[in-house]
Amino acid sequence: MTKPTLAVIGGTGEEGSGLALRWAADGYSVLIGSRSRERAVAAAAELKSMLPPELPARISGDSNAGAAAAADVIVLSVPYSSQTGILEQIRAGCQGKTVVSVVVPLKPPRVSRVWRPQGGSAAEEAQGFLGGEARVVAAFQNISATHLKELDHTVDCDILVTGDDSTAKETAIELARAAGMRGIDAGPLSNSSVSEGLTAVLIGINIRNKVKGSGIRITGV
Amino acid sequence: MTKPTLAVIGGTGEEGSGLALRWAADGYSVLIGSRSRERAVAAAAELKSMLPPELPARISGDSNAGAAAAADVIVLSVPYSSQTGILEQIRAGCQGKTVVSVVVPLKPPRVSRVWRPQGGSAAEEAQGFLGGEARVVAAFQNISATHLKELDHTVDCDILVTGDDSTAKETAIELARAAGMRGIDAGPLSNSSVSEGLTAVLIGINIRNKVKGSGIRITGV
Known about the structure:
The structure is a homodimer.
Chain A (H helix, E strand, L loop, with lengths): L5 E4 L4 H12 L4 E5 L2 H14 L8 E5 H7 L2 E4 L6 H12 L3 E4 L20 H9 L4 E4 L20 E5 L2 H13 L4 E3 L6 H18 L5 E5 L2
Helix pairs in contact in A: 3-4, 4-5
């Protein structure tokens, strides 16, 4: 089966670029999207240089709108505060596609306190904004970006995947596997309030325990 | 240090009685509370018979109000739908004490869909009802009751403890240890919306994976 082409919107950020690198290393074609096409191209070149030379490096950069339009699956990895503005740029390109939201709503300065946006969760707000033709799933909220770019580093965290479309959830579970993690179907998109909220809980656990990358594992499955 | 006397309100239920048994086995004095004093006494006698004969069996039964009034720490293990009525019975007995809420708000029949009560969480509603003189913490939401009464069964699940009083959180973390689990400070009581909501996610994971007792572990600490 041909692998879908991925657009990582916000792919110049720490988490987006780490995921992009892992997906490219697994053989996916990845488009890095950024507000600035130049920054996206530079980030793509840098990621390309980090891949083992024997791999075909299919990473390139584009504007957010261009990357979304050219991709089969769109990964949204942007700060919550920028979400609406960026969704406006990519709305057309998301229609008929799976959109994987990696966004975590946090309310500075109290980022270890669970905060829920008006629409229930960032992912539900994205779904509302993009409309029913886009299939939004939430995933990858709970991983630490710290070691993502070390390709042989095992991320000790499961990926809770929520969404209302089961094919879209399967896509996200496959993307978790491709990045070296275990994706778990965690129910409907409305359950994303919990997976998003868990990130604030983990940030607090990091602070209290003086660690950088606490995560979660689902046991008993 | 003398161990506090515990009241387990709803201690005739599966989870409450399982926790009560584990705490009694660790040397705590436990009062089983129930609406019916007779049922509480019978449940206490049954739990007593399950303890190794060499242990001093300090489990007895009482009405909810009587158990709460006589205890140092109150554990609330009741269905969410009964919470307000039972809090009315025990309000006087909770003043000045730590109250550990094990309650999970679920909205049947869709119990695998995260549902958040109006007050944010069951524990926050309990805090609001009991007033500032009671120190409410939320804990033990995510464990399966299935194997609790097998004292040598390792519960493969961490206990997220949320609350606004650090001494009360320490008490709950010690109760987790006494029951053979690891308690983790998960932040303020408002974060209990996530630990309570996780239970609905785990119920869905149980259903989809045909298992009974999925749980969560915090990694990286």
